[in-house]
Amino acid sequence: MTPTSVANQYLATQVQSSRPLELIVLLYDAALRHTATAREAMVRRDIATRRTALSKTMAIIGELQNTLDMERGGAIASELDRLYGWMQSRLLDAIMQQDARPIDDTRRVLETLRDAWHTIASAPPAEAHP
Questions:
Q1: What is the tens place of the pLDDT at every residue in 83-108?
Q2: Among 2, 13, 53, 115, which one is least packed by beta carbons within 10 Å?
Q3: How many domains does the chain have?
Q4: pTM
């Protein structure tokens, strides 16, 4: 087995054994990894790696946006939807302007949201009250 196949197998096991809130944290973690890769690639002028990393980041953000329950989520879901749209726009700005600052802006928001979701996912489940 190659190190990559071992890592992929580990990740698949982690995803399959995670609760829904933990999966959201994993998506944020992946988005943060890909934005870091994109930024490094932009500095190195490695267009292919930057393109792949930003595409993966945008796909993850799109998935997070598609999972929002706008009916039950109320104002929080609306605000997350707005933030996800803003992040997509900033990543497109990074591509168009060949500038890492929009990636940095996106990373800051992703880090804040990731930390919030991690706190929520780590909290003990609320007990049902009769």
A1: 999 999 999 999 999 999 999 999 99
A2: 2
A3: 1
A4: 0.81
Looking at the chain, list the stretches that DSSP marks H as alpha helix, in order from N- to C-terminal side: 3-16, 20-44, 47-66, 70-97, 101-122
Residue 84 lies in a domain: yes
Residue pair 41/49 in contact (Cβ under 8 Å)? The answer is yes
Which among 86, 103, 117 is positioned nearest to 32, based on CA atoms? 103
Greatest alpha-carbon span in the chain: 60
Question: pLDDT by residue (tens digit) across 21-31?
Answer: 889 999 999 99
The answer to whether residues 22 and 121 touch, using CB atoms and an 8 Å cutoff, is: yes
Residues 6+ apart with CB under 8 A from 24: 64, 67, 117, 121
Structure tokens at 56: 């993966």
Please name which of 56, 42, 30, 22 lies closest in space to residue 94, comparing C-alpha atoms.
Answer: 42
Tell me the residue range of the domain where 64 lies.
Answer: 17-122
CATH of the domain at 23: 1.20.120.340
